[in-house]
């Protein structure tokens, strides 16, 4: 694998692969960035492009408009093509395959003509409490607030006027995929965040579908949710071809040709698993961005239902316990911005990467317990801790040791705090983890966030050479797998074997073992953090 950030030499081999349509494209719509990643036949990233965007709070709903989705796709793709031309001197017209991934969950309901009935309700919304509680009790299966079925049932409970017109609903990845191919399908990993999946069948759970039908009949007789949900596909299956309309959506210049194979669209959790090679039992990964979540592949089902844990699947359909926290690194980003402004005010402006590097290195010198400081990164509500809204806070007592090192360490601890609470529930279930793989921009600064995370979860944390590439690379790999399956048919290996033997063979991993002092220090921090949630709760009520 190419080292993260390295530029391939742009040699004739790469140019020939691009020209022949042998490269594979992945596009991921994240919370703040839409990223496109092009990989060569050896799965090495050879070009990338991105487009920044932000969600909006409109009438109390966190949303992105479809116009911004379209503009973002075109912006990211145009940036990718420009990067290909700059690096390799050619302009791609087709690909071996392409794939789309995006933020999981949420609610995009459409009428029979394909019109969006209400603005996209993202995973960040926490207005579905009554629905999620009732469905969890009915199914005996935790239904988080952000799941698509919770949004649909809450709309039924609230008697929203759009409900009778719903002809289909999907996730953001499912919407983009349908715009590119015309097919209403979804990868099993993303589908498992819409409605519970039965691992034995790889499809929506039939018992729960029947239960939901009877439950909804009181208000909406004749509503059959199975007819509204996307068709479920597993990794490697043919999910359709790029239509002329889809090609024009991605590339209005007309250079991109239709007919490209698409893999099943996936959620960012699934692509994170692929990007870290963690799709086998006893492995897991942690993805840190605007949100932060852990995925652990289970050897067997959990013994109890826990509101802190979602049960979803890998892109191949294996059962996964997911700890999903709405709040990730955004508050840390905001503080880095403040320190960058301070540096500029002193006449020593610094690039954001330099500011982050300085803060992260300072964190290593902080007290193992944060010196008595507490940091809450709650910009939005956090279901794991029972908060419908968030108020970012820095809290300390008069005898706390307020230093740059302690401040930086507690900001990183704040990113991991809620996640650690969920991981402790998983540990109580007796789930064994050999190694957790971490990815996302938080881990670009070598040896800092990785080490502190190992202390927070008391498990080894591995970071690979694509830690900063993230889900766009992961969905590009899934697209390559679909192309391999299309070529080899039943002779193609299972996904975990494909990743082990063809993608990650020979890849060097940097593994941080938990440091005893960090483990003890974070445990002390987390005890204060749990007690201090009362302060966070009071802040949401008073401010």
TrEMBL record:
GO terms for molecular function: kinase activity. Residues 24-249 form the Carbohydrate kinase FGGY N-terminal domain. Keywords: Carbohydrate metabolism, Kinase, Transferase, Xylose metabolism. InterPro entries: ATPase_NBD, FGGY_C, FGGY_Carb_Kinase, FGGY_N. Residues 285-483 form the Carbohydrate kinase FGGY C-terminal domain. Pfam families: FGGY_C, FGGY_N. GO terms for biological process: D-xylose metabolic process. Belongs to the FGGY kinase family. This is Sugar (Pentulose or hexulose) kinase. It comes from Krasilnikoviella flava.
């Amino acid at each position: 694998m190419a080292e993260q950030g390295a530029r391939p030499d742009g040699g004739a081999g790469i140019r020939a692969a691009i020209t022949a349509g042998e490269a594979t494209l992945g596009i991921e719509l994240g919370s703040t960035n839409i990223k496109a990643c092009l990989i060569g036949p050896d799965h090495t990233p050879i070009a990338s492009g991105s487009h920044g965007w932000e969600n909006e709070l409109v009438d109390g709903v966190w949303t992105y408009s479809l116009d911004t989705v379209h503009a973002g796709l075109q912006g990211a793709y145009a940036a990718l093509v420009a990067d290909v031309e700059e690096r390799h001197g050619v302009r791609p017209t087709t690909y071996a395959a392409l794939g789309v991934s995006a933020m999981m969950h949420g609610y995009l309901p459409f009428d029979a003509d394909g019109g969006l009935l209400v603005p996209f309700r993202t995973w960040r919304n926490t207005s579905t409490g009554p629905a999620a509680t009732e469905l969890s009790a009915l199914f005996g299966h935790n239904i988080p607030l952000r799941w698509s079925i919770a949004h649909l049932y809450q709309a039924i409970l609230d008697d929203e006027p759009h409900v009778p017109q719903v002809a289909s609903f999907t996730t953001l990845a499912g919407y983009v995929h349908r715009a590119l191919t015309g097919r209403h399908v979804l990868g099993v990993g993303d589908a498992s965040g819409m409605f519970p999946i039965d691992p034995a069948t790889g499809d929506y759970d039939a018992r729960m579908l029947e239960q939901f039908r009877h439950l909804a009949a009181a208000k909406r007789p004749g509503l059959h949710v199975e007819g509204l949900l996307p068709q479920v596909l597993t990794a490697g299956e043919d999910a359709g071809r790029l239509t002329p309309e889809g090609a024009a959506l991605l590339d209005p210049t007309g250079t991109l040709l239709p007919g490209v194979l698409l893999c099943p669209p996936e959620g960012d959790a699934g692509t994170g698993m692929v990007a870290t090679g963690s799709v086998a039992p006893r492995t897991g990964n942690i993805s840190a961005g605007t949100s932060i979540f852990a995925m652990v592949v289970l050897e067997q089902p959990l013994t109890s239902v826990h509101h802190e844990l979602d049960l979803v699947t890998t892109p191949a359909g294996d059962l996964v316990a997911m700890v999903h926290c709405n709040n990730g690194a955004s508050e840390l980003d905001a503080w880095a911005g403040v320190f960058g402004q301070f540096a500029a005010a002193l006449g020593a402006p610094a690039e954001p990467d330099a500011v982050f590097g300085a803060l992260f290195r300072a964190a290593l010198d902080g007290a193992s317990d944060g010196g008595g400081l507490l940091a809450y990164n709650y910009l939005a509500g956090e279901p794991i801790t029972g908060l419908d809204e968030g108020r970012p806070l820095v809290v300390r007592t008069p005898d706390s040791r307020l230093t740059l090192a302690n401040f930086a360490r507690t900001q990183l601890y704040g990113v991991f705090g809620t996640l650690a609470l969920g991981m402790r529930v998983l540990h109580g279930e007796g789930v064994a983890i050999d190694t957790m793989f971490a990815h996302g921009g938080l881990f670009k600064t070598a040896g800092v966030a990785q080490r502190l995370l190992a202390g927070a979860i008391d498990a080894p944390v591995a970071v690979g050479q694509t830690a900063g590439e993230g889900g766009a690379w992961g969905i590009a790999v899934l697209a390559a797998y679909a192309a391999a399956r299309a070529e080899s048919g039943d002779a193609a290996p299972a996904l975990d074997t494909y990743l082990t033997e063809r993608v990650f063979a020979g890849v060097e991993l940097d593994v941080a073992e938990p440091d005893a002092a960090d483990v003890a220090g974070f445990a002390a921090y987390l005890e204060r953090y749990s007690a201090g949630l009362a302060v966070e709760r009071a802040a949401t009520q008073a401010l």
